[in-house]
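Model it.
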Amino acid sequence: MASAYEEEEKRESRLAPSAFELSVAASTVVSSRASSIDEIQPQSFGRANEHHVDIDKAKAEFAALERRLSRASRSSEKRDLEKGDDDEFDLREYFTSTNEANIANGTRHKHVGVTWENLSVEVPDFGSKFFVQSLPHAVWATLSFPIMYPLGLYMQKSGKLPSRPIMQNFNGVLKPGEICLVLGVPGSGCSTFLKVIANQRNGYAKVEGDVHYAGIDSQEMAEKYSGEVVYNQEDDIHIPTLTVEQTLEFALSTKTPSKRLPGITGKAFNTEVLEMLVKMLNITHTKKTLVGNEFVRGVSGGERKRVSILEMMATRAHVVSYDNSTRGLDASTALDFMKSLRVTTDILGQTTFVSLYQAGENIYNLVDKVLVIDQGRTVYFGPATEARQYFVSLGFVDRPRQATADYLTACTDPNERQVSPEYDPRTVPSSPEELETAFIQSKYYKQMQADRDEYRRHIGGEGRSDQENFRRAVLDDKKKGVSKTNPYTLGFVAQVRTLTLRQFRLQWQDKFTLYTSFGISLTLAFVLGGTFFNLPPTTSGGFTRGSVLFLAMLMNCLDAFAEMPTQMVGRPIFLKQTGYKLFRPAALSLANTVADIPFSAVRIFLFNIVAYFMTGLYRSGSAFWTFHLLIYVAFLTMQGFFRTIGVICPNFDSAFRVAALVVPNMISYAGYIIPRRSMRKYIFWLFWLNPMGYSFSGLMENEFKRVNLLCDGNYITPRNAPGQNTYPDDLGPNQVCTFFGAQPGQPYVRGADYIDVGFSLKTDQLWKLNFVVLFVLFIAFQITQAVAMEFVNFGAMGGFQIFVKENKETKALNEQLRNRLAQKDTRVEKDSEFSPGKTLTWKDVNYVVPVPGGTRRLLHDVTGYVKPGQLVALMGASGAGKTTALDVLAQRKNIGVITGEIMLEGRPLSTSFARETAYAEQMDVHELTTTVREAMRFSAYLRQPYSVSVEDKNAYVESIIELLELQDLSEALVLTLGVEARKRLTIGVELASRPSALLFLDEPTSGLDAQSAFNLVRFLRKLAAAGQSIICTIHQPSALLFENFDRLLLLESGGETVYFGDIGADSKILREYLGRNGATCPDDANPAEFMLEAIGAGSGKRIGPRDWKYIWLDSPEYQTLVREVEEFKAEGAARGDLDTTKPTTCMPPRADATPIWYQLRIVSERAIRALWRNPDYTWTRIFVHVFLSLFVSLTFLNLGNSLRDLQFRVFAMFWVTILPAIVVNQIIPAFIINRMIFIREASSGMYSPIVFACGQLVAEMPWSLVCAIFYWVLMYWPLRLGQGAGGKAGSGYFLLMIIAVEFFGVSMAQAVGALAPSIKVAVLTNTPIALILTTFAGVTIPYPNLNVFWRSWLYQLSPYTRVVSGLITTELRGLEIVCRPDELVTFDPPSGQTCQQWAGSFVQSFGGYLVDGNATSACQYCQYRVGDEFFVPLNMSYGTRWRDLGIVWAFFAFNTIVTIVASRYLRYAKR
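Modeled.
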């Protein structure tokens, strides 16, 4: 296989272009002789270029972009250092220089025009609203699943599911080389159109109408060419621990075309294209930086958005849909992106759909056509240049100063559009239906129909070669051996190789997890080896050898459990990349296994070496390698099993339920805890389906076929007690060896006989059965995993919102909001609603962070201020340090070094600063199960002063809901809010705190449409007018939006100040400053965009004679600023008796606004409510306990008084100690996710770490109590426990102990979660903690067999020692034991003696009883007479059972303290 691949690589090395043409597309509309943009002509289909951008303007724009992108190497040395632009980059030359060579090389064009006719989309409709589910719903869903799931599939296939339309009768055509801008208010259907036009139809109930791509219908396109039509979603989803370079490298490597220019290898091609891509959007300096996400430090939000854009460009698709792809980008970068898109669309012949919020006029001028949507209906589709006039002609007032895109969107908003006085309002179309009818009757609809018909004729006639060229070009791109009907560029083997490299890199770069996993594995190995150190070759070491083998296998197999949550976490990224057709889903399943082998093989090999040789297992090469092979294949098999569960289950809770069904069975029915001969017949089949069973059987056969065990004293009956000399020391003729497999008169027991009699195992089945079946199961789980990944898809769900049903209070409040909305009552906007702010000054602020190899300065000598009544804009290019500056000023940084002065009212910041300020962060982090109203009330309750009444706080929240226009979503769960609504909620949560000092907002308008952004800034303007002090970063503001700000702090790369001062009416002051220093702003330009271009933000060349940071330092404005800052400081210092930074009482300043008991009540209420609204989580807890108790009951049903039943009683009670191990795996992820929310809320001084930790614990307690009762009822009574001296009176003790164990398990899970930096690391620790605590509890290894070292501390330290002791002594005290015939030990007394005479002293010393003491032959001995004889030698006492219960509760208290302390000091939030 390898040689074949190398041959293919050699063949590819003779073919390759060095142009992005084959990176982005294998086609072009540039003629073979074109060498400049003057020679480029648009593709013609009848009425050529009627709706294309003006060619002259396009030429000018292209030339401007060429100049801007060609200046990289001529930038200042500082800029080169920051951006990494070391070589000159000429975009035009890059796109056109090799076109002639490409065509000469046989490259075919891809011209894919799109037509759509009567396109309609419907989504499932189960009522007017989806309401939040609770526990009864979850229980019913599980019980009815076998019936409802097939029924649902049938109804879906037959089209009988109820549905409602969200898109109706869309019609249009977009030709190659054209860009269509899709506009509409949020919720109008823009995203739905972009998805469907990109042929992504999963999750919708019905998609009707005809969509053709170059004449190819949507079904064929999906089957054969789906990689040529892609959709770029609004959210940026990436693997956060890969660098930007690695992310793009992977995308390119899966789409490297087979046909390239001679002399360029695939690797060289990808490297060149990667360099071009990062230069195109100016992120060269981020190549080695992690992409990051909300919780992993990485590139900035704007840079992450550019990575998303470039990743999709790397797919080389020809029909592309960009969904709000400029969100988070600054104005200059957004314009650069659109200009680059214009160039690639024109030159490469792409067909581009793009939706944008807040699109400026410069961006709008780059598009050809505009589609305006109103509530799922087309209200305009036609030339972009005529759209504005069309809506004016309908009767809407024109707003010349409003950007065209904003104006078009506003015309679909009933609250924003205005009817011209010249028109009768009754004749102007207002509803979506009326606007749609007006469009259908317009000339633009008829022109669209004519264009569509003409394009169809073209494709069916002379243009048919376009379709054939497209088909052939796609085939040319494919690597050798890839099927013609396969939408992928690489073959399956090449995909696996590429994915394996990525997955290997992921694990290798995650050093913390890597070191942790190896460290835990080796620790476990040494603990296991030390516990069973150097086992003797006697019968005393016989059973313990089995324990070693079982524990070694179990420790490694359960290590694979971490694969299950990993599958869940990676699902969104997986769905996005498979949607791009970068690889087949099945390839990832195989790649995961292959990539993990180097790490897991080394880790388990080291574990096995330590465990095997320390414990003294049979020392030979073949024995060890067989041992290692069986354990490693078992690990791989269980890894495949857990991954399969992770793929087929929709969420972690359902996956956990499946695992809870299977894993306990696997452990119990592996043949160790319950030998095969003792398994109940009705569940015996579980052993034959159990990979652990085959592994354990093979391990036992491998070890015991090689050893003979000397029968030592402990297994000789009768034998001497200490100090006696009645019986022979060695096995005599009147003694027997009671070890399984012993032969009469033989001092040695053959290992093969032992496992045959004791475990029903045959040594000749090692290779013939056990290994073969184990390997087959490994292959089977690889296949099931691959098949499941191919066909199971839980990610493509239609968007919908979930609401909480109204109660009496919320119903009345919502009615009031609706009434005021209908009356357009704006009483809540009175200035008196808001508190006056305070003056914040900062001078010469620097911020330095540690980086590999040294430090990096992110802010340099930043100076400024904000005073009450001012709205300050903080702007700059993406990555210039805007968010960093805001974090520093808001005191949210916890790493790095901050120097300089930051003062509030002329005084140093106090501990209450965080509480006095509000900070709406860029990342919208909320408790997902709260409603909008509840989230705001939570903030108001905990952040407004405690003296303010609850009624006043609630009333204030209602005003915020109205101001942010969230009336219709007040009862919606945060989980289901869209991007725009969640952004408004983030702002509302901060405003609800009623900040008394300042309000910080980080990109509050990102993700909002233009009108929502304008309303929000207008609202901030009202706050400022009321005296509030406000600083906010902002991207892409329109000229109208920009004018609402009073002052501007402008930063360039490196955190350098470029300007701080007034903006002025119509930005006059800012314009004068720029013009005075060599950058005159044109009258028709947006000052917010022009100033960024002037300072060289984005990829543009700086305007002006020198760097603007030096111009600023030399300016009179800077001197004035320094003087003003000093004056503010002096004024604040003069008000010594009015120190606004400290409370007026004599109490010390508090970080929290409310008492701790009040915090605990509010936080606990929210946590309890969150669990109730997460029924999957709570039902999973209950389900696990119910099933586990039933499983134990069925396994040990109706226990009697035999010796075997005694052992089963012990095992049944031992299963109580397994409960925490199972609970931990569910609670830890929930706790760590909640900790992320706490970190965000704690930074605002909402509540203390003690409250967070206790609140999490309090919320879990009721469910723990319910679970304990279920387990007790379903375990205690079916087993017929309580037959000892205490009778059923001991049942109450059992319940109390099970409750204590439940509470201990919850507290231990939260303690581990608090100590761990991530879910992955926490899950890694679960198995070792559980195994160590259970191993040293005195059951797996009896107390007498423990060596002194472990007995002296770890045995005492394990809480399960107390659990086992308390339960066993309560149950077995006074329990009469009656051995079954096969449990009796038979021996003959010496001639002339009775059984009592011969064995009486033995029985008296060791307990048990003789069946007939007067017999003279065939004496029958039972090992125990009463249960006390079993537990007393094991260091258990009935008298200490209440002490044992108290100690378990003490462990619970200790865990709680650890959780509180860790929550206070270990937040793992580097910022």
